């Protein structure tokens, strides 16, 4: 039998506990990560959410993170300010009150010998420091002059943003080298923190002194960003960005746009299932039932500006699973800043048409068979099952492959007479040849929209033939051996 029960739609009882969190996303108030998701998806400035998340970190003993969120909640005008300040006071007192060893009331006489040994050790340490001094260090450190800015800004613990100005005419290779050198220097000063170094075009004379970022609007003007965390990564990741990048620019490089969002769609669903992103991208393309997608695509365009070279040798993707914003978690090593759109299936029942789309792009269009007596449900669903050559009550009833959503599925069929007709019990039937093309383009978490007519989301798509892979794929590890499925045929 099919191993997932329950309809594709959300039940009435569960819906009462759900709150909308943007496009096609809901948050359950019973979710232990509810307030973290409020900050991530709904309102990053929510005083209530910052207070609750801060209290949670406080209970876990993660005081730095607790301080960050409680300070956000204690801001002027916050209805949680009083409670947040009280919690901050408790945290600060706890940090200051480290219990000393019990000492008798009468004064202890310190032994002379240990004191002398300690003094000798300090002298030796001072001598070694002076002996190892290098004049070149002074010239580097002197460049990090902390200029007065007249304000106090608190950043999240573990993150240190900086910026410097570049001449717009400076060659790309030289910019990379400067960022690489400066990131390494900052990493030595702050080995436990993530260094984020922003390059901004100079309006006047070039000034490459590194400054701590006191105004977050500077980051919006950056044309290049370098990431470096000395404690966990030996690479300096340098990414050139286009702040004005949008859908029009995306049309010039559809392969990169689609490949990026194919992986992001799977990442988003993985995070919803597990509460965290996978350590390695390859975990998404595991064998059934952990096959969130069928392959990890490589960006075939936009690679001329890759900056891995000797600075950051490694994969085609800049993958940072410790971040929260999905567009920052996965980015291509290129100048393109790709907006996130989940992979989608658009089914129009009036014309028996299925389209696979991503943002402005149309990847595949096919005729389909639908349910008799309007049994194919209309609405918005998500793919929760991906199976190659699924077994049913009869051999081959689900054809080449199936993409399940609750009790229904988009699946293959060799009964070509049913294509364009209403004969199924509710599933969407696709000719096997078309299903073989559709299946690898739709990860778990892909959105399925079924409607009688073509709305705005169904129209104005740019048809592309996107060669996301260069060799024939094998789907043998996506076969559910010995399992019988029972989607409504």
UniProtKB/TrEMBL annotation:
MF (Gene Ontology): glycosyltransferase activity; peptidoglycan L,D-transpeptidase activity
Gene Ontology biological-process annotations: cell wall organization; peptidoglycan-protein cross-linking; regulation of cell shape
Keywords on record: Cell shape, Cell wall biogenesis/degradation, Glycosyltransferase, Hydrolase, Membrane, Peptidoglycan synthesis, Transferase, Transmembrane, Transmembrane helix
CDD domains according to UniProt: YkuD_like
Any Gene Ontology CC annotation: extracellular region
Residues annotated as the enzyme's active site: 411, 427
Keyword hit for Transport: no
Protein's pathway: Cell wall biogenesis; peptidoglycan biosynthesis
Keyword Isomerase: no
InterPro entries: LD-transpeptidase (IPR050979), LD_TPept_cat_dom (IPR005490), Transpep_catalytic_dom (IPR038063)
Record-annotated membrane-spanning stretches: 112-133
Domain L,D-TPase catalytic intervals: 343-451
Listed Gene3D superfamilies: L,D-transpeptidase catalytic domain-like (2.40.440.10)
Family label: Belongs to the YkuD family.
Protein name (Swiss-Prot/TrEMBL): L,D-TPase catalytic domain-containing protein
């Amino acid at each position: 039998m099919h191993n997932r029960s329950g309809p594709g739609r959300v039940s009435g009882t569960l819906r009462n506990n759900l709150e909308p969190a943007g496009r096609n996303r809901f948050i359950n108030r019973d979710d232990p990560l509810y307030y973290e998701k409020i900050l991530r998806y709904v309102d990053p400035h929510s005083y209530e959410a910052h207070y609750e998340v801060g209290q949670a970190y406080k209970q876990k003993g993660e005081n730095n993170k607790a301080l960050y969120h409680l300070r956000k909640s204690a801001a002027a005008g916050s209805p949680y300010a009083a409670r947040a300040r009280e919690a901050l006071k408790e945290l600060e007192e706890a940090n200051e009150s480290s219990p000393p060893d019990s000492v008798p009331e009468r004064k202890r006489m310190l032994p002379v010998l240990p004191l002398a040994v300690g003094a000798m050790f300090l002298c030796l340490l001072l001598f070694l420091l002076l002996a190892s001094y290098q004049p070149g260090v002074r010239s580097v450190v002197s460049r990090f002059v902390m200029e007065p800015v007249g304000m106090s800004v608190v950043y999240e613990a573990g993150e240190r943003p900086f910026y410097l100005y570049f001449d717009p005419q400076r060659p790309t290779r030289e910019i990379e080298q400067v960022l690489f050198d400066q990131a390494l220097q900052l990493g030595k000063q702050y080995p436990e923190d993530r260094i984020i170094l922003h390059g901004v075009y100079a309006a006047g004379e070039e000034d490459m002194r590194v400054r701590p970022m006191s105004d977050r609007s500077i980051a919006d003007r950056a044309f290049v960003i370098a990431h470096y965390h000395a404690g966990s990564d030996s690479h300096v990741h340098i990414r050139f960005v286009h702040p004005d990048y949008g859908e029009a620019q995306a049309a010039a490089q559809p392969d990169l746009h689609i490949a990026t969002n194919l992986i992001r769609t799977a990442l988003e669903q993985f995070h919803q299932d597990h509460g965290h992103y996978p350590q390695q991208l390859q975990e998404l393309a595991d064998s059934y039932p952990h096959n969130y997608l069928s392959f990890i695509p490589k960006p075939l365009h936009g690679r001329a500006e890759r900056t891995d070279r000797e600075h950051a040798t490694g994969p085609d993707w800049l993958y940072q699973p410790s971040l929260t914003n999905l567009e920052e978690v996965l980015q291509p090593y290129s100048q393109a800043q790709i907006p996130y759109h989940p992979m989608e299936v658009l089914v129009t029942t009036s014309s028996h048409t299925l389209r696979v789309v991503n943002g402005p792009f149309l990847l595949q269009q096919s005729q389909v068979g639908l349910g008799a007596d309007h049994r194919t449900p209309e609405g918005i669903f998500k793919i929760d099952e991906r199976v190659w050559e699924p077994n049913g009550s009869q051999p081959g009833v689900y054809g080449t492959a199936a993409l399940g959503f609750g009790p229904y599925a988009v699946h293959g069929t060799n009964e070509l007479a049913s294509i364009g007709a209403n004969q199924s019990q509710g599933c969407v039937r696709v000719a096997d040849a078309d299903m073989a093309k559709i299946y690898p383009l739709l990860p778990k978490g892909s959105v399925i929209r079924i409607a009688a007519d073509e709305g705005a989301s169904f129209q104005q798509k740019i048809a592309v033939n996107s060669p996301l892979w260069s060799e024939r794929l094998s789907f043998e590890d996506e076969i559910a051996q010995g399992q019988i499925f029972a989607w409504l045929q």
